[in-house]
């Protein structure tokens, strides 16, 4: 094995241990470019030198920096508008009918990156004030990247980020200019909260979420890890809830915890299980 191959394996193992993502041969090309800023910070030139540093004892902070650099936090507001149309036309009307007695909705944006997906959801509700008057809307955004979660919590976006996916009217209605950047308003931030979380861990609130959006999170998992992720999501969703995946993802042939919905190619419903089989899992999640 060449030194470069060994170095990539060390970094790939680190990424898999921290996030579940696999550093496949097809993804190796982006490693050096993704780590270039870290190379400059450390005064090194290549992956081999970085791998040697990672092998030294007590380099947990460096390991965290490496993983953060490798994560793909690409996102933007209303990413793939057709998906949000499916939510508006099918999912939210269904939930509005079924949750009318409590007037409470809980949504989980898993793999939320820097928060644009969660805030896009909040804008949908804010643009229909009469429809959702008196409702409690809770949108939780989680991501394995602590750096991304910090940005999401700040609600502060650059001029470039704010122009991606929203109209000028939405920008002016839901954001305020702040020293050359744009700050999300309390109108939408009040519906959202963010926390660092690995989707391979048990969900933040077992059995609570009415809608889980988990788009483009499972692409780099191997089949076994993907099945674990589906189990974790399933334990967090209500019995009549909804799951939305990304365009390149499906439950078919991957898990028996979800089935395709009758509307929308990206929408899925939980498969009901014997409660006696679920109880031990829920007890473990809250213990």
TrEMBL record:
<keyword id="KW-0808">Transferase</keyword>
<keyword id="KW-0949">S-adenosyl-L-methionine</keyword>
<dbReference type="InterPro" id="IPR050903">
    <property type="entry name" value="Bact_Chemotaxis_MeTrfase"/>
</dbReference>
<dbReference type="InterPro" id="IPR022642">
    <property type="entry name" value="CheR_C"/>
</dbReference>
<dbReference type="InterPro" id="IPR036804">
    <property type="entry name" value="CheR_N_sf"/>
</dbReference>
<dbReference type="Pfam" id="PF01739">
    <property type="entry name" value="CheR"/>
</dbReference>
<protein>
    <recommendedName>
        <fullName>protein-glutamate O-methyltransferase</fullName>
        <ecNumber>2.1.1.80</ecNumber>
    </recommendedName>
</protein>
<dbReference type="InterPro" id="IPR000780">
    <property type="entry name" value="CheR_MeTrfase"/>
</dbReference>
<feature type="domain" description="CheR-type methyltransferase">
    <location>
        <begin position="1"/>
        <end position="273"/>
    </location>
</feature>
<keyword id="KW-0489">Methyltransferase</keyword>
<dbReference type="InterPro" id="IPR029063">
    <property type="entry name" value="SAM-dependent_MTases_sf"/>
</dbReference>
């Amino acid at each position: 094995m060449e030194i470069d191959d060994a170095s990539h394996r060390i970094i790939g193992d680190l990424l898999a241990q921290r996030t579940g993502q696999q550093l496949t041969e097809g993804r190796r090309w982006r490693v050096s470019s993704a780590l270039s800023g870290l190379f400059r910070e450390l005064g090194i030139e290549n992956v081999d030198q970085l791998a040697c540093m990672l092998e030294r004892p007590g380099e947990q902070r460096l390991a965290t920096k490496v993983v953060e650099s490798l994560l793909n936090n690409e996102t933007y507001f209303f990413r793939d508008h057709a998906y949000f149309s499916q939510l508006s036309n099918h999912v939210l009307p269904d939930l509005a009918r079924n949750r009318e007695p409590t007037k409470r909705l809980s949504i989980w944006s898993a793999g939320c990156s820097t928060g644009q997906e969660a805030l896009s959801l909040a804008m949908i509700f804010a643009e229909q004030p009469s429809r959702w008057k008196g409702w409690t809307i809770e949108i939780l955004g989680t991501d394995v990247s602590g750096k991304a979660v910090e940005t999401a919590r700040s609600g502060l976006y650059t001029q470039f980020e704010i122009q991606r996916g929203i109209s000028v009217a939405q920008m002016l209605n839901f954001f305020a200019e702040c020293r050359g950047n744009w700050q999300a308003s309390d109108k939408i931030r009040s519906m959202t909260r963010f926390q660092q979380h690995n989707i391979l861990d048990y969900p933040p609130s077992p059995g609570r979420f009415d809608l889980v959006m988990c788009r483009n999170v499972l692409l780099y998992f191997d089949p076994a890890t993907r099945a674990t992720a589906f189990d974790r999501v399933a334990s967090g969703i209500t019995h009549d809830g909804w799951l939305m995946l990304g365009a390149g993802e499906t439950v078919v042939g991957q898990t028996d915890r979800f089935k395709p919905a009758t509307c929308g190619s990206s929408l899925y419903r939980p498969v009901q299980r014997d409660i006696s089989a679920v109880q031990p899992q829920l007890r473990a999640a809250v213990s």
